[in-house]
Specification:
single chain, 260 residues, six-stranded antiparallel β-sheet, 15 strands, globular, Hint_dom_sf, Hedgehog/Intein_dom, Hedgehog/Intein (Hint) domain-containing protein
């Protein structure tokens, strides 16, 4: 039985079409921005605590407001050490200068540090072994988030900062022995807190900072994202409301801006 001309032609056309489709470049689609769910507790002016949930971009400027302390981190308060997850807006924490400051905001986010995001980044944690910086500093093993900053200057940055007291990203202290990077493959809940003023607080015997967007925040946060970012902080109306930094920061151009 012979194949009708129309069918044989259709078959040849189908083969030709498949070759064209196979050789044609695939259409490029713009990758959608990744979003995260951020949990926020805020001390309102009437003394009540407002708890809200936000869906916002998974960008460093947003994540840095939430990714400092892991569950179980002990914050020094007027009533003694308190786990970060139990701390509430309205509680008072002890600061480096011996005064106490009120917590006005607490944020948390859950992420998988070992998972690569849409931009090819990971968000590693830093594990600090007990007594790394002296007796009971920290009291026990500490796991800090990627946005945590410690008071101190690691050896490789002393040619820049000398013996000045600066707030340094915790990952700069990694030495592969007592301070190491860790990338857990499972979800981790991370926290950060805002006080009435930017301060240095004691967490597990170490001096960390409370949250502040930084003096370069105006340049880091685009105008289109600013309203989304500020919506996370019901206690402020503008970036200027976060006030001044308690001390200079190393990295991100902060030191240059303060000493200019």
């Amino acid at each position: 039985m012979t194949i009708p001309y129309s069918l044989s032609r259709a078959a040849r056309n189908a083969v030709g079409t498949s070759v064209v489709l196979r050789d044609a470049p695939r259409p490029t689609t713009k990758q959608k921005a990744q979003l995260r769910r951020y949990e926020v507790s805020t001390l309102m002016k009437n003394g009540e605590i407002a708890q809200t949930r936000h869906i916002a971009p998974a960008l460093p400027v947003f994540e840095d407001a939430f990714c400092a302390f892991t569950r179980g981190s002990l914050v020094e308060t007027e009533s003694g050490p308190m786990a970060i997850e139990d701390l509430l807006p309205g509680d008072t924490v002890l600061t480096q200068d011996g005064t106490s400051e009120t917590v006005v905001w607490k944020g948390s986010v859950t992420l998988i540090p070992g998972r690569v995001d849409s931009r090819g980044r990971t968000r590693p944690l830093t594990r600090i072994m007990a007594d790394t910086f002296g007796m009971q500093k920290p009291l026990s093993g500490v796991i800090a988030g990627p946005s945590a900053r410690l008071v101190g200057t690691p050896g490789h940055l002393r040619h820049i900062h000398g013996d000045d007291q600066v707030l340094t990203p915790v990952h700069e202290f990694q030495d592969g022995m007592s301070v190491i990077e860790t990338l857990p493959p499972t979800p981790i809940e991370l926290f950060h807190i805002c006080l009435k003023r930017h301060s240095v607080i004691r967490v597990d015997g170490l001096q960390f900072e409370s949250y502040h967007p930084g003096i370069n925040a105006v340049r880091r946060i685009s105008h289109s994202l600013r309203s989304i970012y500020l919506n996370l902080f019901a206690h402020v109306d503008s970036l200027n409301d976060f006030g001044p930094l308690a001390m200079p920061r190393a990295g991100d151009g902060e030191m240059d801006a303060l000493t200019a």
